[in-house]
Amino acid sequence: MHDTFADQARQYELVARAIEFIRNHARHQPSLVEISENIGMSEFHLQKVFSKWAGVSPKRFLQYVTKEYVKQALRSPKDVLSVTMEAGLSSPGRLHDLMVNCEAMSPGEIKSMGAGLEIWFGNAPTPFGNALIAWTQRGICNFWFVDGDALANA
Predict the structure, then answer these.
(1) CA distances in angstroms from 10 to 2, 57, 108, 139, listed in the order given
(2) DSSP letters of 99-121?
(3) 140: helix, coil or strand?
(4) Distance between alpha carbon 50 and the CA centroid of its chain, in Å?
(5) Cα–Cα distance between 48 and 149 in angstroms, integer?
(6) What is the tens place of the pLDDT at every residue in 58-94?
(7) What is the pLDDT of residues 92-131, one digit of tens each?
């Protein structure tokens, strides 16, 4: 059975509200229950609809928002513990796991702007154009799509 246009519009609106809630409350690390209660949808339905429309789960989206905040905060004079607490994470270990899983770098390596870190890179054609890929010993740390001249200048 296919969703009607009205159903799709409602799903889109609910996902947009969930995204806004996650962005506005990321430093509190809201649970799926909190997000679903805020937008008036069951946890199961939120998980399903959010993943369908956003392409990632609400938890993964929260991780992305948190990671982006942390990357910016680590560029300040603040120490890693302060950044951990400000990001709403329970321990530096959770911050470490988040950054290694999402960026393939530790918080300390990010704070030092990669000083002493070996980063390799290469390019490859994809169905979406040329990709420039950078990786550390832990995994991929960056991925860009680049056009002809940009690849030579990258």
Answers:
(1) 14, 18, 43, 38
(2) HHHHHSS-HHHHHTTTTT---EE
(3) strand
(4) 15
(5) 41
(6) 999 999 999 999 999 999 999 999 999 999 999 999 9
(7) 999 999 999 998 999 999 998 888 889 999 988 889 888 9
